[in-house]
Design brief:
Keywords: ANK repeat, Repeat. InterPro entries: Ankyrin_rpt (IPR002110), Ankyrin_rpt-contain_sf (IPR036770). With about 290 residues, the protein is mainly α. The protein folds into 2 domains: about 130 residues, Ankyrin repeat-containing domain (Serine Threonine Protein Phosphatase 5, Tetratricopeptide repeat); about 100 residues, Serine Threonine Protein Phosphatase 5, Tetratricopeptide repeat. The relative contact order is 0.06.
Length: about 290
Amino acid sequence: METTRFAWPSQAGLKEIAHTLIKIGADLQVTDRYGQPLLHQAASNGHNDVIQLLLGHGVDVNSTDPGGRTALHFAAFYGHKSTTRILLSSPEIDSATCDNEGATPLCAAARGNHRCVALQILDKEPTSINALGFGEKNALHFAVENRNIHLASLLVDLDSPDPNTCDVQGWTALNYAAGQGDLRMMELLLTRSDLELNISRVPPIYLAAERGHLEVVHRLVSLHKVDINQTYWRKSPLFIAIEKGYRSIAKLLLKQGSRLNVNAKTSLEDTALHIAVSYGDSEIVELLLRDD
């Protein structure tokens, strides 16, 4: 019964009801049936009055839910700037606490696409920038995936983030930019001199070719350190461009002369010429025979 009564004020922001429950000596660390502490419910909904009341009566600002998340994780994920400020102002706050997936509040802010909240946390705790959260993604992964150029720019400009960190599927921030056809984001990432261009597990140029992002492929091809023959599942960027019907990308790659291996074979021993012939693309077939 206490759980139900305490879930109500934090969701509705009813400070007066919380005051009444405090007077009768209710347990302020009580959780709801999902294991969510009252403080976390208040933080999720941005009810600052309830948060201040709870903290003022000794509730642990670093208490965690079954997922290992603190109230700050929730405030950050939902983008509550004033709530984040209140929690960060607590002398006992640990702003770098990792949840059960390894995510810090900074990861939560980036995943939720909230630049201002991320900046608040970075001002308090800049060392957690490379922490990995959901899907083994760091804050930069989330910023690029969410196409948040302002947050990504903030992170890239710092010295500490590793732009080459791979998530659970082997993608770096560059993979997400290339795969989404986000040329502006890719240009931002390219300002980092330590950026790895040829990701061993999933080549960015392959992703761009597979998804038909001509401008991104063009930019990557212009970088001579990029291996334009790097394969994914034994398919080259040229092969996948032809297979997917992206003729402009195939023609761009075919203009690279000796840099391109037109005879690269798949696991089934197929070449770009095989797939072009099978698709009846006479123009590409002619170009391939010319370069063979």
